């Protein structure tokens, strides 16, 4: 008869228990690492939120101070507004031209070509002009602010200003944010005007519409409540672009790589916030 050896005798407790303890230790280490990683992510997120609120409150505090840098403010208005005119001009004309060329066949199939100027005017003034122009400004202005302030942080120019008793918030941040808040609405109005001009040129590709008749038909469909909310939200677009660009550049790291990171994150976050602000503005306008 074959002798049956108990299974329990095949397991050596001296060898098995350390393996069990070793496996438990590894699992505990993995759980600890995951917990530490999640805690670090949460703490970094909360730290970023606190830094953003601190940055905003400090900016508003310095914005209403008595010693305002008017010379730097006008210089930033020139850099943001005048230097952006060629890009905004091309963008505005193409917006009106493309919108007219794409919309004309659909309206012609219903015999409503006469409604084309009004439709283009409402589309440009209410939505397309402000949003597309703000996105273009986010790419140009936001990246410029992020790269400029980031390079100043890397080269320790901001630290030198703080050591020399010069307020960097008042000189660098407030002037740029106010200049962006003021100049973006003006650039949007400029783009809307050139968009209507491009729409008139597009309408004359397959037709013959006089300049006076086209603009008379366009503005006959535009009301005050079409114009006012569109202008108001452009101030928020400019403020958002200025805040994000200045924040990302001012809080950049010490390495040279951080300059590119600051410029890239400024463009991405400013563009995303512009779309979010536009969504909120549309909902508020719809309730009114």
Order of helices and strands: HHHHHHHHH
Identify the overall geometry: elongated
- In terms of DSSP E residues, the strand content is under 5%
The value of Rg in angstroms is 29 Å
**Overall structural domain count:** 2
Mean pLDDT: 83
Poorly predicted runs are 1-21
Explain what the structure shows:
By secondary structure, this protein is mainly α. It contains nine helices and no strands. Mean pLDDT is 83; it is low at 1-21.
What characteristics describe this protein?
2 domains; mainly alpha; single chain
Short note summarizing the structure:
The chain has 288 residues and is mostly helical.
Could you give the topology of this structure?
Elements lengths: L12 H51 L6 H11 L4 H25 L6 H39 L2 H7 L4 H36 L7 H10 L3 H27 L6 H31 L1
Helix pairs in contact: 1-6, 2-6, 3-4, 3-6, 4-6, 4-7, 4-8, 4-9, 6-8, 8-9
């Amino acid at each position: 008869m074959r002798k049956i050896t108990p299974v329990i005798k095949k397991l050596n407790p001296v060898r098995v228990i350390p393996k069990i303890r070793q496996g438990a230790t590894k699992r505990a280490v993995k759980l600890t690492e995951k917990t530490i990683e999640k805690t670090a992510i949460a703490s970094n997120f909360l730290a970023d939120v606190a830094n953003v609120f601190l940055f905003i409150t400090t900016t508003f505090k310095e914005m209403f101070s008595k010693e305002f840098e008017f010379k730097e403010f006008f210089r930033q208005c020139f850099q943001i507004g005048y230097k952006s005119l060629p890009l905004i001009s091309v963008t505005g004309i193409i917006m009106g031209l493309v919108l007219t060329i794409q919309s004309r066949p659909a309206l012609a199939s219903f015999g409503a070509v006469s409604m084309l100027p009004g439709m283009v005017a409402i589309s440009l003034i209410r939505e397309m002009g402000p949003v597309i122009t703000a996105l273009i400004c986010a790419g140009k202005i936001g990246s410029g602010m992020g790269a400029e302030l980031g390079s100043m942080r890397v080269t320790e120019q901001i630290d030198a200003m703080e050591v020399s008793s010069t307020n960097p918030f008042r000189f660098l941040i407030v002037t740029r944010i106010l200049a962006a808040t003021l100049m973006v609405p003006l650039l949007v109005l400029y783009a809307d005007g050139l968009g209507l001009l491009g729409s008139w040129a597009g309408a004359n590709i397959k037709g013959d519409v006089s300049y006076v008749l086209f603009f008379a038909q366009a503005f006959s469909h535009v009301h005050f409540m079409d114009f006012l909310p569109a202008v108001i939200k452009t101030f928020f677009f400019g403020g958002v672009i200025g805040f994000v660009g200045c924040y990302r550049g001012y809080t950049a790291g010490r390495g040279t790589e951080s300059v590119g990171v600051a410029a890239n994150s400024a463009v991405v976050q400013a563009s995303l916030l512009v779309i979010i602000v536009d969504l909120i503005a549309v909902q508020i306008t719809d309730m009114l």
